[in-house]
From TrEMBL:
Its main location: nucleus. Residues 588-614 have a biased composition (Basic and acidic residues). Pfam families: RRM_1. Keywords: Coiled coil, mRNA processing, mRNA splicing, Nucleus, Repeat, RNA-binding. Residues 510-544 form a coiled coil. This is U4/U6 snRNA-associated-splicing factor PRP24. SUPFAM superfamilies: RNA-binding domain, RBD, TPR-like. The keyword RNA-binding applies. Residues 993-1014 have a biased composition (Low complexity). Functions as a recycling factor of the spliceosome, a machinery that forms on each precursor-messenger RNA (pre-mRNA) and catalyzes the removal of introns. Chaperones the re-annealing of U4 and U6 snRNAs (small nuclear RNAs) released from previous rounds of splicing, an initial step in reforming the U4/U6-U5 tri-snRNP (small nuclear ribonucleoprotein) that can reassemble into another spliceosome complex; this step involves binding U6 and facilitating the unwinding of the U6 internal stem loop, followed by base-pairing of U6 to U4. It is found in: Nucleus.
Length: 1032
């Protein structure tokens, strides 16, 4: 009985979904539901019907096509030519939709199976004609393999089928046929060797075996040498992309991973179209798969990939036939994409004759009006109407339109305006169609009155839109209807509009040009009264928002998980901490002595400086709001005007992301933030913006694999939303630092990504992902971790981590013990022990020379900055020998990101960036690595800049700052060794000339070099930086 009831329910659901699909066949979610319900009925005919209905309206992926093909094969008579043609046509349709390696592989296997079947049967039926002949098989299989050849990691699954089939033919051939096949296979293998792919070695081995078996012995070596040269570029091409392929796979082929990969390929001046086209095809296939499974934002990503793909084909002058095929495939894939449809219309206008273009464009425009998702989405509908109207307008201007061409143009736009207002009661806030129609009406003298009627109607529909009102008054002024314009200004000045300041400014400008003194003053008086009303209203709104914001902050703080009890040492790394950008972001300045724990002769003076620094320290996290969904090309003064009434603004930064404009607004005081949050949902240029606390969209991430880099993080976290920035710590003082910050453009994306917290990301790492809440951030920066860590050397290889921990626990609470082990799990002779506080680490120095497992151990502070002061003679020269200098570093370079890029080419020990002069010091593991790096022939491109590599200076004392270049081109060289070196270490506050200052003085003038000494070190580093740059 239950089974019958379930079946009855399924049939009822099937009937219901079919009715809904009849009303809205372009809803892909309904098709997915239809297929699911059909499968639930257990009726194969219903499943097949659901799959076929999906393919009739939409491009489908392998999840739809493979079951449909399999069902067709199972239900067909494979000895029937008609059935065979039907199956082959089905394969062709499936392969036209998306690039699917499984479908292409299934097609190849089907062809080989049928070919072998006919070979065993003694021949093919005459009705097949050329089908499944050797020549037809080769041509057909070669085309299938070519479709997937650009897939770097999976194309071999196709090529290997063709290769094995051809080699089997060759093995059984004789005479002229054998000679022909030898030539064919030789050309095929050589062509494959010149294509980038993952199993190049296997292909080369196949060519070697082929040459051994089918070529004269004396030709073997020359042919192999020639083949090796031929494949060299392809091997390099794959090696350059292997890193991206691996990162993409690790991220589960996320759509953001594809976008990042594509962006890296498009940076090249001449992109590799063989790879880039296949990469777009792969991204589109993956986006469709995710859309079909119901993933949020997949439809938007799929539309973005298609529009970018056809733009690439256009800019690279690809043949019209190929571009046309891409457009048609794209419109089957994303029929609701108005941007793609608008591009298609422009392509047809460019590629076809006027009469043919008119017929085609009319047909697709009429079809677009039947696509529900397109007609209900204003952002997709408006581009389509503008594209259609633009085509009609250009026909009129060229004299190729009919007698009713102008009336047709007006009708297209007015019909579009009606559709926009029907799609949404809010309409189009940018009034794009109204502006277009108004411009046309104003060009024709007889239609000036129509422009007035248009904008009068627009102000009734968009009652609060400043854009509608100012456009209306502009038209009145252009027609010299000054009294009417003044009447409108007086009426709207006191209305509740989205940007009253713009209306007031327009009114004042109008009266300055066309008004009397009395009219100007009347306008100013009215505006002042209106401004008072608006400010009072905003103050009330700000007060309400402040209370709401405080409640939100309290709720977020209460919901973020925080460990209240002591946690294991490894887990404590999860506490959020700042990326210490001080060394690089502040123009390459050295860390201050108070930050490094260096003793100072005048402790009271130092305390005063520290207190002053603490007082002036910027509180970026609590004083910054993030602004998203900004209109294109937004200007800083527009944001200043919006936020100026919230408080004093310290800094505004606008960033253009691939798909949007965003900004950060930092205030002088955190009390300004609640008022700033009230600007959420306000409008700039008629577009609604989003405002939130910057930290709410920021994640603190740690405990990921050591080899994880920026690409790994972006691809892993990119699937949750658009990433604004990824910030990495510098490793120049501690190479073991492994954390980063990921900031999204919306808090929702950050909250969604919290699901990765605790996920195993390989190598036994359970990643920690937390909201980077500044209120819960540990009261420390990572810079003092060096002072809490000791370096233990001279260990017996049989010492265990537990024994070390037991020894050092006697000096204080141990946070972590890092044993450096060999491949057998035994100690390599040294380890790092990190304590909870600095005093315990210094106390642990008493363990120096302690006997452990019959070995005397050496214990020193692990801080490389402290140990660096007591290096053996010649050590600094050794460091310079294994270091190079990089120039032309792009602005805003993160040391952590630069080190990641350089580690792709050599073993790096330390990177230090000097942002004010665009240079960096790079220290390698040894001099040999540095030498190989200097001899590189290929340029290193970082963030779009080609880095210049020069040897590090090899004489004189080391500084943490580069030497300033001598003035002019005198060619003189001043030895750095001639400058006396103070006894204190780097960053010391001791009196005397600082190394960098001395070097600067030697390179320029003696006065500049001794000023610091004369003042007893009283000048700060900002003063020194000015001296170094010549007072600029």
């Amino acid at each position: 009985m239950d089974v019958d009831m379930n079946e009855a329910d399924a049939l009822e659901a099937l009937s219901s979904i079919l009715e809904r699909l009849t009303d809205n066949p372009y809803d892909i979610a309904l098709h997915a539901e239809h297929i699911r319900i059909a499968r639930a009925t257990g009726m194969e005919d219903q499943v097949e019907s659901a799959l076929e209905m999906m393919t009739a309206f939409w491009a489908a992926g392998e999840d739809v096509w493979l079951p449909l093909i399999q069902h067709k094969i199972a239900a067909s008579n494979l000895d029937s030519p008609e059935d065979l043609h039907a199956i082959l046509d089905l394969f062709t349709r499936a392969e036209r939709d998306y690039l699917s390696i499984p479908i292409l592989q299934k097609h190849l296997e089907f062809l080989v199976e049928r070919y072998e079947h006919y070979a065993e049967a003694g021949g093919r039926p005459d009705q097949l004609e050329e089908l499944f002949s050797p020549e037809w098989m080769h041509d057909t299989m070669f085309k299938l393999v070519s479709q997937g050849a650009g897939h770097l990691t999976k194309s071999h699954l196709l090529f290997d089928v063709l290769r094995d089939w051809e080699l089997e033919r060759l093995q059984n051939a004789s005479g002229e046929e054998r000679a022909m096949l030898v030539s064919l296979v030789d050309a095929m293998l050589l062509e494959r060797l010149q294509q980038p792919h993952s199993n190049h070695d296997e292909t080369f081995q196949a060519y070697s075996s082929f040459t051994t078996n089918y070529k004269p012995p004396d030709e073997y070596e020359p042919l192999l040498v020639q083949a090796s040269k031929a494949r060299a570029q392809a091997v390099k091409a794959y090696q350059r992309r292997e890193y991206f392929e691996n990162s993409l796979a690790q991220a589960g082929y996320s759509l953001d991973g594809y976008a990042y990969y594509i962006a890296s390929e498009r940076k090249h001046k001449t992109p590799d179209m063989f790879i880039l086209k296949a990469l777009y095809e792969r991204a589109i296939t993956e986006a469709d798969r995710r859309r079909f499974s119901g993933e949020a934002n997949a439809e938007e990503a799929l539309q973005s990939f298609w529009t970018a793909y056809v733009d690439l084909l256009r800019t690279q002058d690809v043949e019209d036939d190929e571009t046309l095929a891409a457009f048609r495939r794209g419109l089957r894939s994303v029929p609701a994409s108005g941007e793609l449809l608008a591009r298609y219309m422009r392509f047809l206008e460019r590629a076809l004759e006027p009469e043919q273009a008119t017929a085609e464009i009319n047909a697709i425009y009429e079809k677009a009006q039947t696509i529900g998702p397109l007609q209900s989405n204003i952002e997709q509908l408006v581009p389509v109407v503008l594209a259609r109207a633009g085509f009609e307008k250009r026909l009129i201007e060229a004299g190729k339109a009919g007698e009713d061409g102008f009336e047709s143009l007006l009708q297209i736009i007015m019909d579009g305006i009606a559709r926009v207002r029907k799609a949404s009661s809010a309409g189009d806030p940018r009034l794009r169609l109204e502006k277009y129609l108004s411009a046309i009406c104003l060009e024709v003298e007889d239609l000036h009155a129509n422009a007035l009627i248009l904008w009068e109607d627009a102000t009734k529909h968009y009652k609060t839109s400043y854009l509608a009102w100012t456009s209306y008054t502009d038209v009145l002024i252009r027609q010299h209807l000054y009294d009417d314009a003044r009447r409108v200004f007086r009426d709207v000045a006191h209305k509740n509009t989205d940007w009253p300041e713009a209306i007031w400014e327009a009114w004042v400008s109008f009266e300055q040009l066309h008004g009397s003194v009395e009219q100007i003053e009347d306008a100013l008086d009215r505006i002042e009264r209106a401004r008072t009303q608006v400010n009072n209203r905003r103050a009330k709104e700000a007060q309400k928002a402040q209370l709401a914001a405080a409640q939100v902050i309290a709720e977020v703080q209460a919901s973020v998980p925080v460990e209240a009890a002591p946690v294991p040492a490894q887990a404590q790394e999860q506490a959020a901490m700042d990326v210490d950008a001080g060394a690089s972001a502040e123009g390459g300045s050295k860390r201050k002595a108070e930050d490094e724990g260096t003793p100072d002769r005048d402790s009271s003076s130092k305390k005063a400086r520290v207190d002053e620094q603490a007082k002036l320290k910027r509180d970026r996290e609590n004083c910054t709001v993030f602004v998203a969904e900004l209109p294109a090309e937004v200007q800083e003064d527009e944001l200043t005007a919006l936020f100026k009434d919230c408080g004093s603004i310290r800094e505004i930064k606008i960033t253009h992301l691939p798909n949007s404009f965003v900004a950060t607004v930092e205030f002088m005081e955190r009390d300004s933030v609640p008022a700033a949050l009230t600007k959420d949902k306000k409008r700039i240029r008629g577009q609604e913006i989003a405002v939130h606390l910057a930290w709410r969209s920021t994640l603190y991430i740690t405990n990921f694999p050591e080899n994880a880099d920026d690409t790994f993080i972006r691809t892993l976290f990119g699937k949750y939303g658009e990433i604004f920035d990824v910030r990495w710590p510098s490793k120049k003082f501690k190479s073991t630092r492994r954390f980063c910050y990921v900031q999204y453009t919306s808090p929702a994306a950050a909250e969604a990504a919290l699901e990765l917290n605790g996920n195993d990301v390989g190598e036994g790492h359970r990643m920690s992902v937390l909201i980077s809440n500044p209120e819960r951030k540990k009261e420390r920066t990572d810079s003092d971790a060096n002072d809490r860590e000791v370096y233990v050397a001279g260990l017996s290889k049989y010492v265990t981590k537990q024994e070390l921990e037991a020894l050092f626990k006697t000096y204080g609470a141990v946070k972590d013990v890092r044993m450096i082990l060999d491949d057998k799990g035994l100690s390599k002779g040294f380890a790092f022990v990190e304590f909870e506080n600095e005093n315990d680490a210094r106390a642990a120095l008493a363990a120096n020379n302690h006997e452990l497992k019959k070995r005397r151990i050496a214990v020193t502070l692990a801080d490389t900055r402290v140990r660096g002061k007591n290096k053996a003679p010649g050590y600094r020269a050794e460091v310079r020998n294994r270091s190079v200098r990089l120039r032309k570093i792009p602005p805003g370079t993160q040391e952590g990101l630069l080190q990641q890029e350089l580690e792709k080419h050599a073993k790096i020990k330390r990177v230090e960036v000097f942002a004010d002069i665009g240079e960096a010091d790079v220290e390698f593991e040894d001099a040999a690595e540095a030498g190989k790096f200097l001899l590189r022939s290929d340029p290193i491109i970082f963030n779009g800049a080609t880095l210049e590599i020069v040897p590090e200076a090899t004489s004189g004392p080391s500084t943490s700052r580069p030497i300033a270049p001598p003035a002019g081109n005198t060619g003189l060289f001043v030895p750095r060794a001639a400058v006396s070196r103070p006894r204190a270490g780097l960053g010391s506050k001791q009196h005397g000339t600082k190394p960098a200052q001395a070097a600067s003085g030697a390179a320029s003038t003696s006065g500049a070099g001794t000023s610091a000494a004369d003042n007893g070190g009283g000048k700060g580093q900002d003063d020194f930086r000015k001296m170094l740059l010549g007072g600029k």
